[in-house]
Design goal:
- The protein is of the alpha+beta class.
- It contains 8 helices and 11 strands.
- α3 packs across α4 and α7 packs antiparallel against α8.
Length: 272
Amino acid sequence: MSDYIRIYDLEVYANHGVYKEENVLGQKFVFSLELEVDMRKAGISDDLKDSINYGEVCQSIHEYARTHTFQLLECLAESVARMLLMKYREIVSLKLEIKKPWAPVGLPLDTVSIEITRKRHKVYLSIGSNMGDKKAYLDGALKELEEHPMIQVEKCSDYLITAPYGGVEQDDFLNACLEISTVLGPEELLEALHKIEGHADRKREIHWGPRTLDLDILFYDDWIMDTADLIIPHKEIPLRDFVLTPLAEIAPEFVHPVLKKNILQLKEELEQ
């Protein structure tokens, strides 16, 4: 798909900048956007409800920029991009440029601008519990994810009772998989998941041991990353039936970016 709506030079008088005077007196900012959207349906129906109302988009930017104050253009741009992506589901991705005319740098200057490109990311999570009221822990985590301003829960598998994994003697687990969309980066998302686990009094005392709540990032789009804190895709996916079974329910054709096999194929291989 390569359909775009472009908005050029939307002027907003707002209060952003490092200096106190900029926050008090305000100044002009100029926004330009390129919105990736699917126009096919609107092109056939000739009905605005099948497209995105760019007038509303302009109003949303205007209101947001005037009711928030940021020191840096970078933070203003990031915040506006996230607001638009979460508010308008029709936007697949966007490119945003913000110009700051006559920026106070102490030299003759026409304008300073920054440009960012952002998108909504598709993420698959596993969720599990084997302590206390397991269903209540899973339900509570799902509710917190649904209430997070930067996360939208798209799909949730059935809850599945599974035997514990890893050789530690403990109670059975209740597991599920979720598909979410988010504008959070992988590390930001991991931090958000850890906070939700913390609300469930999650303790990390025994590796593969019992836990009130466990939230893992399985896939983040088709990204491949390996850091001290986060490995994507999760390296245990091909070995875990309690992941592959619920994941096959909501994303059977999703292709593992490293193994180049879909979830159903991985599940069938594990069952052999």
